[in-house]
């Protein structure tokens, strides 16, 4: 029942297998009880395995006490003693406490049919952008310079996980300008997103990839996920229009940028290819090149050097307008407003051209 634990850097790959021909993605389980257990250490997974064996043993042999059960299972009596206890003092392994909490709100098993699936995929997307899970699984967080985004992210999170009320914190700060960091330290929330495929640890120095299941999900789910990711990382395309010159009526600077340490350049390029492939499934077309910003290295405290990498989206008039219609950029209100302004500007220039 217990799989080998994945390293934090590879959680997004997990052990997911693509659905077989003819299967219905909407009913495919994306997060199961075992997926949650697999985000824990070997020791915790072993404890869960022994707990399940204990439950089966005492069910078949109701007269067995905790000492005999411990001897037969090869575990310490201290463990089976608490498992054997009834009432409020009864204990279960930590991963199963998380499973129990998520079960109570209908999140296990989790499929695309869940009533809050769109919000969950949207939130998951932000964890590939300006959000994340720390390497010790203590917090899941989201950063923005706009308090409106922070408030909305928190509102959505608490709608999905009502038991996390009182377990969030908003911190103001920012080394390069004012920003807000909202953190949630409820273990069930953290493990749920880790099991769903969110990267764990410092994304700049960690190898990770998109969850395989996202490519087989519905168009609506893919758009929701990308909306969260792009809200964090996409630039706002600028419209360059001069009434005197037809060739200047175009958009430019439409790209997505992510940083990575130099040692993981090849892995990062593969990840960017995955993003491009996912974008292509919803008709968001990118150009072939990936640009490495060699002139702007960042010297990190851990001794590594990181560079920014950018992929570019096609800037045809209709492509940018379609992007604006398709994506709300839910957790980047200021960015959406600036995009809307550029679209209005482009439409005005187009109308002016038709008049002339």
Q: What is the H level of CATH, i.e. the homologous superfamily of the largest domain?
A: Homing endonucleases
Mean pLDDT reading: 89
Across the major sheet, the strand order is 1-2-4-3
Alpha-carbon Rg, integer: 24 Å
Q: How many helix segments?
A: 12
Shape: elongated
Tell me the number of structural domains.
2
Tally of extended strands?
10
Low-confidence stretches: 1-24
CATH class descriptor of the largest domain: Alpha Beta
Biggest sheet descriptor = 4 strands, antiparallel
CATH topology of the largest domain: Endonuclease I-creI
Order of helices and strands: HHHHHHEEHEEHHEEEHEEEHH
Distance between the termini: 72 Å
- Structural class of the helix and strand makeup? alpha+beta
Helix fraction bin: 40-55%
InterPro entries: Homing_endonucl (IPR027434), Intein_endonuc_central (IPR004042)
Protein name: DOD-type homing endonuclease domain-containing protein
GO molecular function, one term: endonuclease activity
């Amino acid at each position: 029942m217990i799989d080998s634990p994945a390293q934090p850097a590879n959680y997004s790959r997990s052990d997911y297998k693509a659905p077989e021909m003819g299967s219905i993605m909407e009913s495919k389980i994306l997060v199961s009880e075992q997926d949650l257990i697999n985000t824990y250490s070997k020791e915790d997974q072993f404890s869960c395995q022994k707990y399940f064996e204990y439950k089966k043993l005492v069910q078949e042999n109701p007269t067995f006490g905790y000492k005999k059960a411990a001897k037969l299972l090869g575990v310490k009596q201290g463990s089976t003693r608490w498992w054997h206890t009834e009432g409020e003092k009864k204990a279960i392994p930590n991963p199963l406490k998380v499973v129990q909490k998520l079960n109570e709100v209908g999140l296990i098993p989790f499929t695309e049919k869940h009533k809050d699936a769109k919000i969950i995929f949207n939130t998951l997307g932000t964890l590939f952008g300006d959000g994340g899970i720390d390497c010790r699984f203590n917090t899941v967080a989201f950063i923005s310079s706009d308090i409106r985004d922070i408030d909305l992210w928190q509102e959505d999170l608490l709608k999905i996980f009502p038991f996390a009320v009182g377990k969030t914190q908003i911190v103001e700060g920012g080394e390069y300008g004012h920003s807000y960091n909202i953190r949630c330290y409820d273990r069930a929330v953290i493990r749920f997103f880790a099991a769903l495929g969110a990267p764990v640890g410092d994304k700049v120095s960690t190898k990770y990839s998109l969850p395989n299941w996202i490519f087989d999900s519905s168009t609506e789910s893919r758009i929701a996920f990308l909306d969260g990711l792009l809200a964090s990382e996409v630039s706002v395309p600028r419209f360059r229009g001069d009434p005197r010159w037809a060739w200047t009526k175009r958009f430019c600077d439409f790209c997505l940028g992510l940083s990575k340490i130099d040692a993981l350049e090849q892995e990062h390029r593969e990840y960017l290819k995955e993003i491009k492939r996912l974008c292509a499934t919803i008709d968001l077309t990118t150009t072939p090149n990936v640009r490495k910003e060699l002139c702007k290295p960042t010297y990190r405290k851990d001794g590594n050097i990181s560079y920014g990498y950018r992929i570019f989206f096609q800037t045809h008039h209709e492509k940018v307008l379609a992007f604006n219609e398709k994506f709300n950029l839910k957790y980047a209100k200021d960015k959406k407003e600036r995009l809307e302004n550029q679209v209005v500007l482009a439409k005005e220039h187009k109308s002016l051209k038709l008049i002339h």
